[in-house]
Amino acid sequence: MSLHIGDTAPNFTADSTVGEINLHKWAEDSWVFFFSHPADFTPVCTTEMGRTAQLADKFSARNTKPLGLSTDIVEEHWDWIHDVNSTQNTTVHFPILADPDCAIAKLYDMIHPGESDTEAVRSVFIIDPDKKIRLTMTYPMSVGRNFDEILRVIDALQLGDKNRIATPADWRPGDKVIIPPSIDNDEAAKLFPDGWEELRPYLRLTEAT
Ligand code: BEZ
């Protein structure tokens, strides 16, 4: 099934390293960083699991719950977590879903036959508290994801929701933001009383926190 931004994240119930998880119930009012891995005991995945655990405070500060998936069984995940903890100097607390029959991987279109018929590629779904998919990203098996970018895009989405703004290329928190063309100058004056810089009528920069 091909999923798009704006779709409701398909719900599922599955076994995980912290017990059975029903995605929508487990997410509660949080954002979810849902990310898949080809297999346990593989090197790139080990570093990504470790990095996610190291960033636990940063995800929590963004009201975001990480949720991993690997196409293996829970008992293997537990053994692997020992390796992740000891090689990456961290402690994995977030859940890793078991998906031995690839049911969730297929539901979320994480199986890309050009890479593997039986293992998931490195998919990312950022899901908001309304259970809407807000970002999709797919990396090949051989390239570990950039976790600075994952945190950055969560920041951008949350700032956009709060202030009705968009963010420019390479935006970082604290940088100027864009007033979208859907907001005319009359409305912009109410929303951004401190004003904006107008480089073009369609390119207006302002501050937002
Ligand atoms: C890895 O996680 O290192 C990996 C997994 C599958 C294919 C290539 C690399």
Essential attributes:
alpha+beta; five-stranded mixed β-sheet; 209 residues; binds benzoic acid
Describe this structure in words.
There is one protein chain. The mean pLDDT is 97. The two termini are 37 Å apart. The chain is elongated, with a radius of gyration of 19 Å. Helix 2 (43-54) packs across helix 4. Strand 4, helix 4 (74-88) and strand 5 (96-98) form a beta-alpha-beta unit. It has a five-stranded mixed β-sheet. A three-stranded antiparallel β-sheet has the order 8-10-9, with no helix packed on it. The protein is built from seven helices and ten strands. It has 209 residues and is α+β, with helices and mostly antiparallel strands. The structure holds benzoic acid (BEZ). Benzoic acid (BEZ) binds next to helix 2.
Which helices and strands appear, and what pairs or packs with what?
Layout: E1 13-14, E2 21-22, H1 23-27, E3 31-37, H2 43-54, H3 56-61, E4 64-70, H4 74-88, E5 96-98, H5 103-107, E6 122-127, E7 133-139, H6 147-163, E8 177-179, H7 185-191, E9 197-200, E10 203-206
Parallel strand pairs: 3-4, 4-5
Antiparallel strand pairs: 1-2, 3-6, 6-7, 8-10, 9-10
Helix pairs in contact: 2-4
Benzoic acid (BEZ) binds near residues 39, 42, 43 and 44.
